């Protein structure tokens, strides 16, 4: 490969206590948690709104937050969903039981409302937000980050800070630091395919949905099977999450896997966006032709961001694995508890893959009502790093557990924990990879996190 040495003097910005890269559910919760505890926080995002996949990716439903008995995901995520609901931005059929009690139940919402609530919560917490700002390089030595280099309309800048959180979904900052990461497709045989989501309008829900409380769209599976058998689609993908009701006439559509796309390769990502837009038209035509109540469906828009499910995962102090998950393991240093099935979408459109997905998602990889597994602190810390945390989709787990914890409520819990841990380090001089986790858990509980473990430990669970 030919190379070019890129050298220039750039402005140094003021120093922050904490810089959070990425404003999805993990980044927003990290920034809000730290801001509320009095830290001077900068939150940057590559696009022009907060919410990440939930807004820019049009993934407008929160995954299950309860286990049929109690609400597991509380804290900042609980507050976000309550506020979104109180302001009328959840689906018209949604009640507080959706996130506070029900088992295996999604909470659909309107992306515009979600963006507003996050803007307000960040402002109230004193978080400075910079949009259209991308982290592009890092100044780090001895497993300590000194500053990051960002780029936006003002050019390049160096931002010094004492603590850093990588909430980019793709572990961009952690990878720039040279910390070990696992890449889907490079370190694993497969890449879970992404989906370019859409918003659809002009739906007559009274005919499109038989069960009015149902939030997903398995109602439409029989129509999908018929269309595939008719040769209607350009592929034979039987796995379709489908429509999520977000208003009396609108839905978010999660349909159309872009197989073999690699989110860490710009050419592949660009081709994937083109393919995603083509697929959105196929699904629009399918709904109009096959699904009652959708004859007049209109396509409002596709998402600005590709709906990437899998790219990088960090190698953390702990790697949460499927044995922990199946054992419903509880950890003294767990920063969240969760009950969401292992949801690894089909790797291709073969019948074998669809059978594998159904078996895993509906049976083998699903916890029962009343159960939960713990998410330990160590999955947020790149091994040995002093002032860097990596929260959300790119936290440290095996592929199967990633299929459960990659979703928005879990990402938010991880973010709240990372932001709280960063402030603990600022105040005590502790470091990320050697944090007093008993202190962290007590502070998270004061922040309304539901952490039922009775025994706490001063040190984290390690591999
Ligand atoms: C198609 C699809 C459907 C899904 N369905 C659901 C669902 O129904 N319910 C659910 O709860 N979850 C769902 N998920 C999972 C969930 O949306 C994401 O995994 C979750 O949002 C991850 O949160 P995060 O904070 O880690 O990252 P993200 O939400 O991806 O946010 C990352 C943010 O970082 C920013 N960023 C990236 N690179 C940089 C950079 N270099 N500099 C600055 N900023 C950067 C991005 O712009 C983005 O805003 C779905 C995911 C996909 C892809």
Task: Describe the fold and architecture.
With 463 residues, the chain is an alpha/beta fold. It folds into 2 domains: 11-184 and 311-446, 3-Layer(bba) Sandwich (FAD/NAD(P)-binding domain); 198-302, no CATH class. The protein is 31% helix and 18% strand. It is built from 13 helices and 18 strands. Strands 1, 2, 3, 6, 7, 8, 9 and 18 form an 8-stranded mixed sheet that branches. Strands 12-13-11-14 form a 4-stranded antiparallel sheet, covered by helices on one side. Strand 7 and strand 8 form a beta hairpin. Helix 1 runs parallel beside helix 4 and helix 12 (408-428) packs across helix 13. The longest helix has 25 residues, at 266-290. It is globular and about 65 Å long. It starts with 10 loop residues before the first strand and ends in a 17-residue tail after the last helix. The structure holds flavin-adenine dinucleotide. Flavin-adenine dinucleotide (FAD) binds at residues 21-27, 44-47, 52-54, 56-57, 59, 61-63, 106, 134-135, 167-170, 172, 194-195, 197, 254, 307-309, 392-393, 406-409, 411. Residues 21-27, 44-47, 52-54, 56-57, 59, 61-63, 106, 134-135, 167-170, 172, 194-195, 197, 254, 307-309, 392-393, 406-409, 411 line the site of flavin-adenine dinucleotide.
